[in-house]
Amino acid sequence: MIDFFRRDLRIAARVLLRSPGFALVAVLTVGIAIGANASIFSVVSGVLLRPLPYPAPEELVTFTLDASKGGAPELPLSPAGYWHFRNKNQRFEDLGGYVSTVQPLTGDGPPEQVTIAAVTWSLFPTLGRAPAKGRTFTEEEDVPGGPNLVIVSDGLWSTRYGSDPDIVGRTIELNGVAREVIGVMPKGFDFPSPETGVWIPLRLDPATQNFGGHFITPVARLAEGATPGLAKADVEQLIGRFGEAGYGPSWFNGVFTGSATVEQLHASIIGESARPLFIVFGALGFVFLIACSNIASLFLVRTKARTREIAVRRAMGATRGRIVQYTLAESTLIALASGVLGVLLAVLGTRVLAFLRPAAIPRVDEVSVDLVVIGFVALTALGASFLLGVLPALRAAAVEVSGALREGGRSATAGRERQVARGMLVVTEIALAVILLVGSGLMVRTARALHEVDPGFDTEDVLTFSIALPPVAYQPGERTAAFFHELTEAVRRLPGVTAAGAIDALPLAGGGPFLATTIEDRPLGPDEFPPAFHVRRVTPGYFEAMGIPVLDGRAFDVNDHAARLGTTMISTNIREKYWPDRSPLGRRIAPSSAFAEIVGVVGNVKTVGLDEPFDEFVYLPMVDSAGGAVTRMSFVVRAAGDPLALMPRIREEVRSRDANLPITGIGMLEGTVADSMAGTTFTTLLLVIAAGIALALGAVGIYGLISFIVGERTAEIGIRMSLGASTGSVMRLFLRQAWLLAGAGIVIGLIASLLATRLLQTLLFGISTFDALTWIFAPVLFFVVATLACLLPAHRAATVDPATAFRQS
Length: 809
Hints:
Blueprint: H1 2-17, H2 20-49, E1 60-66, E2 74-75, H3 79-88, E3 92-106, E4 112-119, H4 123-127, E5 133-134, E6 149-152, H5 154-159, E7 171-174, E8 177-184, E9 196-201, E10 217-222, H6 228-239, H7 249-254, E11 260-264, H8 265-270, H9 274-305, H10 307-315, H11 320-356, H12 371-397, H13 401-405, H14 412-451, E12 462-468, H15 478-492, E13 497-503, E14 514-516, E15 518-519, E16 532-538, H16 542-546, E17 550-553, H17 558-562, E18 567-571, H18 572-578, E19 588-590, E20 596-602, E21 617-621, E22 632-639, H19 647-657, E23 664-668, H20 669-676, H21 678-712, H22 714-722, H23 727-756, H24 772-798, H25 802-808
Parallel strand pairs: 4-9, 6-8, 16-21, 18-20
Antiparallel strand pairs: 1-2, 1-10, 1-11, 3-4, 3-7, 3-10, 5-8, 6-9, 7-8, 12-22, 12-23, 13-22, 14-16, 15-19, 17-20, 18-21, 19-20
Helix pairs in contact: 1-11, 2-9, 2-11, 2-12, 9-12, 9-14, 9-21, 11-12, 14-21, 14-23, 14-24, 21-24, 22-25, 23-24
């Protein structure tokens, strides 16, 4: 059998070479479909399926505390909470923690901002990774007042320090502090994020009384025999004992619910990206099936054209099995060539993804075309070989020898059978395409709804950038406030600038404190916890630059921070909740350690996401009556012209004040908003592309089938025309067939969409899965496309010359 198949492959290769047009179309159509699927599968494999690069990664977990009573769904650990869990847990073999931030790196080149991970000494043993050079921190070094040490990433070591072999023991300046390099992590180690450039000791005090500041993300390794479920029970019983860590009853009444979320570290890193990736992967799987259906239709046409050849083979003794094997040989060659093309396209696709680094995909740097992806392509090509060849092969095996040898084997019955077979394929294509059209339509409507959401500020022509001041050179307080104020004023004076200001954390960019706030004229009951608000520090001019309206009172001026007037501003939703019938001006609240007088009310803004409700904000000047600890600010600059053209002058202003300060986060405010909806944009774009391809292939399928029917019925058309049939009646005859096919496919597709769109439910915003516009637009669009695809062959049928038709019959 193997020898026969080899011979059939050689014969099939010669036959395909004599039909290069057909072979090229088939390989390109199926190869592009395989390549698209392989590209997304490489992401699915690298991001979702590939384990983390640590020993026994399934044992690594992280956990958060449910704080929904206080308005925060989840909280990490406080310093006191960290020691509480580290010392008293029963289900963890080891436990570490980290805090991510950015700090300026100076010396040995131009200043740059690097991502820092401040980690406990136990984090590296918990992960089970050691440096490629040097060592990690010891328990004795990770204490308050311990030595200033640093571990650098392989990327930073190679790019900034030229892979210096003597890097261990060298001193570098980080955030104005000289630190000794004690290690270099191996290539590929990028915990907790690919941007992490250095690791420093967190230096937590075991005797700390800080239980209110929650900023430490825990990472634990499960003990032998422990499961995430058992660990969750252990974490929750330790939450119940939080009083031992210093938490009072008010925390349980107003913040913690007592429950926790424990999940594997891999799942935590992936986050919410799994569902969109699987949805896109499934959509491209539909495209693959549609492509195979289209080429299978072409194979059916070739089988019909070779009916006499197949009959001769049968008459000479070939069995049905040999006929099937011979027919499958051609589809196998097409599938093999398509698989090779698919691998090449997958390599190109993964490189494009690595270059674009879409924010919606974590671990995208780890995506590659490896043996797993190549194995997937091989299986897909094998499936394509079957899908392309099985129906034509069965049709070939069913050829009747005597009938086929008589005058080319023309048979109305055989023609109808071929039409039914191709019609079923086309209906399948249309149904799959309609599912994609409905799904992509819902995502387009969601993206549009998100774009129409008012974030509470005006993004047009606004430049953003960030500056962090090293605390050694700039002690938090008046000096830092003076620096940021002077720089803001200098930028405001630049030609073309209409407004400028700064904030410690931009809306929709993440970060920023969420603090319990005492309201003076609303005393708390026994064990009652105060409400928590987002707290931001801003410079004068910030609200004007952002286009956030001041609805009552005034905005900050220089005196608020320079004279420590003890003032604050609140968002409208806080006023509506606590002072619905009177002005809040003059009232006092304590968002930090001291009471501040409300002097202004501003419009609401979104900070978590466009699809979330407006958040409650309290704004403070850079320095208040209790002080201030602002060391990093994000600037917003509104310009009359091109905002990015201002950057050279802004760099000069910064350099003239401190040449060692790096400027980071340069971009447009519109980009910040776009990044906040990157997941929706990514999913929508790929679904629209898949739907577009499916729509085109469906149209090609209808065109091909109607053309085939016209060819089969040429003699009948000639008779109709000779008996007086009009051009319009002949065209309507074939249009009705196209409409019947389209209608059947649309109905089946819409029924299937009722189930398929449930997968999109969590991704939608502003619409439901039964959005009327989408469910009407998708079938109407395909019906119109089907009609257009049918017009050319229908017109060709209507213009057939009867005499020519009789000669061809």
